[in-house]
Every structure is written in C-alpha cells, then in structure tokens.
Write a structure and sequence with these properties.
The protein has 181 residues and is mainly α. The protein contains six helices and three strands. Strand 2, helix 4 and strand 3 form a beta-alpha-beta unit. It is flat and about 95 Å long.
Length: 181
Amino acid sequence: MKKGIGIIFLAILMLLAGCTSSQNNSEPDPLDPKNRYPDTESNQRSQDRLGFVRYTQDEYAQDNQNQTQQRAIHVDRNEMADMITRILLQNPDFVEVATLVTDEEALIAFETTDNLSKEAAIENAEKTALSILPGHYTIHASNDKSLIQNIESLHYSVMENDNVDIEPLVQVIVDSMKKDD
C-alpha cells in the first residue's frame, strides 16, 4: 500500500516538475514586439530596420543651396546584382546565375535544370530584375552558359583597368543575349 502511494506521489511530483519546466521555457513570447525579429541582435536599434525621410520643399531647397554640388542619386549596382542573383538562385531550377548591372542595363546569364523551359527562365529572370531595379533599366537575360563567363570577364576587366570603355563590351554581350529573345 505504501509503495502504491509512493509511486502515485512520485508520478505527481514528476508531472508537476514537467509542467513547471515547460512554463519556464526559454522560447520568446511571440506577442512581445521586441521578439518580432528574433534573428536581429538585441542591441540593434529599430532605426536600423527601417528607412524614413521627410522633407518639405523649403528644407530640400535649403539643403541643395548648402551643398557645393547637388547630390547625385546613387544606386549600388553591386548590391542590385547580388539581390537579383540571390533571388533567382532561391528557385532550385536555377543552377548558376551571373548578373551585371550598369548605369542603364542589367545583364543576366544563367544555367538552369531541364525542369524549367528557356522561355520561363528568361521571363523569371527579367521579372526579378524588374522588381528590384529602377524602371528605366533595360534588362537582358539569357540561358547561354558561355555568357556567364563573358559577364564575369567584363567585370574583372573593368576592375583591373578603370579606363576601359565598357559600352562596346556590354553591347557584344547584349547582342548575344538578343539572340535568345
């Protein structure tokens, strides 16, 4: 009889211990606004996650008067090319992607699996670039694997020599890509 009571008492004790540990779980409360972005560092400020600017016309005009030269609008072409490439590679049918972004054009060469048609892959690449780049960009895409190397060579030739006229080199690649259109 005492063994039966002891076993019941031990079972209740273990049950209570299990309930307490699950209540003190280290899992964050999903409704706490501080836990909405669990991947961010706890000391990261909210301003690092948002970009916001507000000017009046007068403030904008005064800022331009204070500048010796008017501020130019800057697009980080490396970041744009990186985003396009990474988004395309999220599709498992894209095996390799090379993207080059100039001032006016985006060149995307890729290799895909046989599961994706040439037309669908080109359309996917062009729409991805359109969703990231400003609207005035002309986008060219091709599934010609040899153009991956051409785009990479163009990039490195410009990196080695800043005075290289890239327009004719870009045009050669564009002409090759137009064959796929």
